[in-house]
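Ticket #4471: structure output looks truncated?

Reporter: J.K.
Steps to reproduce: submitted the chain below (347 residues) through the standard prediction queue, then opened the result file.
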Amino acid sequence: MRKLLLTLALLLGYTTSAVADYTFVVPQRAGQGTTVWAEIIAKELEPFLGEKINIKMLPGARDIPGFNKWHNEMRNDDKTVMVSHGGNGVSFLQEQVDYDYRQYDSVGMMNLNIIAGKRKGADMDKPVFPAGSGMVPEAFAMALLICGPDLTMEEYIACFKENVTWVKGMKTSERRLAFKRGELTGTRENPATYKKHVAPDANAELWFHHGLLQPDGSHADDPNFPGLQMEILYEVYWKQTPKGEFYNAYKLVKSFRDGLQKALWVNKGNPNRDKLAAALTAMSKDPTAIANLIKKNGKYDWYIGKAGDAQRDKLLTFVSEKTLKNLVKFNKEALGLKSIYKEELTK
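Returned output as attached by the reporter:
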């Protein structure tokens, strides 16, 4: 009996300890980009938090089910943190999802970017590019750069379909191999995977990027890839600043994807938010931790705690009836994506 009681006590102690750990929920499987990022952040953050962080992977179609599950079943646990990415931000704009960024508090987010590469010597007025819901901002950028100013939405759609070969059905590994072989003339990656998969290719070079969202809602050039922001290239090509309804739809979708590309969330009012944010602030100022992150991702700013809330709130100001309807129209008619107009986001 004594042995049994000792065993139960040990088990109870183990369970209590495990319950006390933080859990970071990632809507992907092992080895995917956001999972790898979460593992890196957890390792660097633990010493400053003073508590263990476990990674819980909840993969599913387009990384939506895991975020939905956290929203519906897990967010009221004060020690469970959601790790979201840019694809979740795009889905929030144009798909029927349960999760809602307006109901959460930010722990922090990296203000990241997506980088487009191209084959050297390729005709990028007639690009061959991989399709996918995550590539929507690249499709908008290509239409702007190739087709120029002062077109209607219908004219941009027609111009895109005439000039861009939008290759559907490729998995990530297939896309990377096809680009290396030259079957695709363009591709896109986050900064870490661009360094790994595109930069070492002697036959590839930078094409454009989307810029870094600023607190005032503007976009700044990326110092890791200077001079190739879409707006900078547009002014070189077309001798004017991009503007208009089509550009506004592009700004909406690129900002939600890149501004929310790697973000940590807790339920609104979570009593541990400030502790988590303080630990993240300390981590973001630690030379060793930051050196490890820069080596993997490049040098990008953190928006932590209330600054992350402000980033989210600024993004919501880009949402209007017109921008959403134009986003949905281009997605459906130019890209062949299933996309719905979510009127509730305009209120």
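Triage note (M.O.): checked the attachment and the full token line is present. The chain has two domains: 10-110+261-316, 115-256+319-346.
Status: closed, working as intended.
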